[in-house]
Amino acid sequence: MKPQRRFLGRPSRFWANVRLVSERLGYTQRGQGQIRVPTLRQTAEALRGLGLSTDHLIAGSGRPTEMGRLLVDYFAARVRKLNAHVAPNLMSSQEARTEFQALRKTLRPSCPIPMNKQKGKKRTPAYLTGIVNMLIEANAQGVPCDYDPQRLTTITHHGAPLRTLARRVDGCFPRTVDPVALWEVKEYYYTTTFGSRVADGVYESLLDGMELQELASNAGVKVRHYLMVDARYAWWDCGKSYLCRIFDMLHMGYVDEVLFGREVIERLPVLVRQWVRLVRKRQ
């Protein structure tokens, strides 16, 4: 999923309204499991309920301001995209295993295929991570990749450290020093509830994105940032509110693209070929 250009580059006060209204009214409708699409009236009522002004949403004539129209359009676009794009792409563990096994048979990879952190019968390969690693290897044209960084990512200037990120990410291309791209993989096939560990995964990617945005703004260095997520039950059945947060994060510019489930299979090879061109331009 790419961001919609119309909503990119919006000022921080726009996102302050998006977050506050979403939290105040709820991301989903209780008892129905559907993502909420606040109307302008509901949006205004939510702010009034907190003792806040609505002049930036509704003009003196009672007509919506530009900000009011944009907020309503954004809420509608968010639910449309999540319903039409995300829901069909998220996979169950069985579906992910099928895709994983098919690619493993076809590609015969030599890249790392890590196991998940489950125990007993649930101890299996990390399907989405395995799919990601195999597709990167198959399309990297011999360019190396750090599939499992065990160190912090560092950006340099004239051979000296310029920025070092706060967290270890799940992958860097081609390496942790001066990567052209990095990514996080969030797969939760055997999660039975949407717990704090899953929620923390969203905020970890947000932190990475904020640091990378600061790097681009103040140092002029662009590192592409991707988030790849899967598990229909965890994300769609239990975690729609966090899918909304991911959608917001994408349009705030903290992540370049989010790949959901089987979307990885079609889109990732295209991205890897772009990364290869960027690496070769540096050489």
Structure keywords:
4-stranded mixed sheet, 48% helix, 283 residues, alpha/beta, two-stranded antiparallel ribbon, globular, Restriction Endonuclease
Order of helices and strands: HHHHHEEEEHEHHEH
How many domains in all?
Answer: 2
Low-confidence stretches: none
- Major beta-sheet overview: 4 strands, mixed
What is the CATH C-level name of the largest domain?
A: Alpha Beta
Shape call: globular
CATH architecture of the largest domain: 3-Layer(aba) Sandwich
Q: What is the average per-residue confidence, as pLDDT, rounded to a whole number?
A: 95
Rg from C-alpha positions? Answer: 20 Å
In DSSP terms, counting alpha (H) and pi (I) runs of 4 or more, how many helices?
9
Give the CATH topology of the largest domain: Restriction Endonuclease
Class by helix and strand content? alpha/beta
Tell me what portion of residues adopts beta-strand conformation.
5-15%
N-to-C terminal Cα separation, in Å? 30 Å
Query: How is the largest sheet built, in terms of strand order?
Result: 3-4-5-6
Number of beta strands: 6
Helix content: 40-55%
Structural description of this entry:
The chain has 283 residues and is an alpha/beta fold. The chain has two domains: 5-89, no CATH class; 93-282, Restriction Endonuclease, CATH 3.40.91. It contains nine helices and six strands. The chain has a four-stranded mixed beta sheet, with helices on both faces. The protein has a two-stranded antiparallel sheet with strand order 1-2. Helix 1 (12-25) packs across helix 2 (40-48), helix 4 (93-107) runs parallel beside helix 5 and helix 6 runs parallel beside helix 8 (240-251). It is globular and about 65 Å long. The model has no long low-confidence stretch (mean pLDDT 95).
